[in-house]
Specification:
It is a single chain. The chain is mainly α. It has one domain. α1 crosses α2 and α1 packs across α3.
Length: about 80
């Protein structure tokens, strides 16, 4: 029973944290695309697609999925 309460509490606490993380990630991607976009057109298109997907997921309240998509976009930008 105690473990269940801890799990529920962690889920309740983490949701707002993911929600606040998404706009920060989107801003980082936007800044990077503006200042130093990828030279490969395919990578640029993929990053833009993941960025848009991340925003849509964020607006739908699916923050964990949004963070994942935005993380993939950042990984492509770093690669």
């Amino acid at each position: 029973m105690r473990r269940l309460l801890v799990l529920v509490a962690a889920a309740v606490i983490s949701t707002p944290l993911f929600a606040m993380h998404c706009p920060v990630d989107m801003a980082k991607i936007d800044e990077r695309l503006e200042s130093n976009p990828p030279t490969d057109a395919a990578v640029l298109e993929q990053v833009q697609s993941l960025r848009a997907e991340g925003q849509q997921l964020h607006e739908s309240g699916k923050h964990a999925e949004s963070v994942k998509a935005l993380g993939q976009a950042q990984t492509l930008l770093d690669g």
